[in-house]
């Protein structure tokens, strides 16, 4: 088996039984310990609800313990639960999950102690290469092998989030939550319900809370509009104030307003940024920094500056955002893909904390979510449009060649290709996915007609 196909820019993602097996997971667990020097130290490991995750967690734990690590098996967890445990316990860890991918996939997200991300620039490739050697030729057992013990962190995780956002005094809200048969079915009741903590003034209407990694109702990928149809219908049926949708490992949250319309992640980023800036300023921070990736709406840095913050633009990807969060001591970071990062949560992304911010913003005032969110969406955006292409570089080159002769446009190739009108009327970015064989397009303009024209032009170049 060649592990290189499963190791991506900032995580591992492969097909179960093909590019990811129990034997591979064991070798990766052993290499994880050796590359990071974790013999004699705590290592955390858990998995999502996919049928293959439990076996992979066990295999990884065996490899890590045989190389001398003291392994704590976290059981069923969301990705942000791993980040919480890694930060709170100051321990390196891994979660087996393929996020929003179909059930035949699984993967691994890894973190160093303190929830510091591991990417291709910070150890992931070294883990891959050593794991390949161990998979091909075996690995030695340490003189002193470690133990494997269970550890439940759900209660502490829920309590941590409750300390960061006070929802006790918001007006009563009816909230439809689509867990997509993913890990939010476990974490939402723990954090927003009364199973572990005191109840909140929230009436939760659950959709697909049963943990089922075969995804019998719809794919756990709320980025695709068709996967929000059930949530939108339920919001209208129940007269709810808001709808929330989580991806499979529950580190991303998407929001639907009371009319059933999806609120853009850029608007959510701007909304939370303004709240986090105000909170940091109240604690004496003069100009709190907010990180946003290059695909978020240009409204995001505008709102950050208006609130007295300092916007910093970076490339797409959770490991890159987290690294920049640490470098800049940023209070918050947001991505167009609905990943939201918080300094108070170890610079890690958590969908539930973002959802709690939106619930607080909504519940602290009387206007409906459509009115509140509309203030943060001054431009027209396409959302992310995916295209399957045989040669991503060739498709991007075709777009570049078409626009290069045009006057009044600026080019930026810091992450994919971004082309913007110098007038400021429109911009778009086209980039290859780091985890899938897709080309992603995002377009924004001052008005819907311009956005649609640019979108259709670029899609024609990509797909023909």
TrEMBL record:
This is Phosphomannomutase/phosphoglucomutase. Belongs to the phosphohexose mutase family. Residues 384-460 form the Alpha-D-phosphohexomutase C-terminal domain. It comes from the Bacteria. Residues 6-122, 156-260, 270-378 form the Alpha-D-phosphohexomutase alpha/beta/alpha domain. Its cofactor is Mg(2+). Gene3D superfamilies: Alpha-D-Glucose-1,6-Bisphosphate, subunit A, domain 3, Alpha-D-phosphohexomutase, C-terminal domain. One of its GO terms (biological process) is carbohydrate metabolic process. The lineage of its organism: Bacteria, Bacillati, Actinomycetota, Actinomycetes, Micrococcales. Keywords: Isomerase, Magnesium, Metal-binding, Phosphoprotein. One of its GO terms (molecular function) is metal ion binding. It comes from Paenarthrobacter ureafaciens.
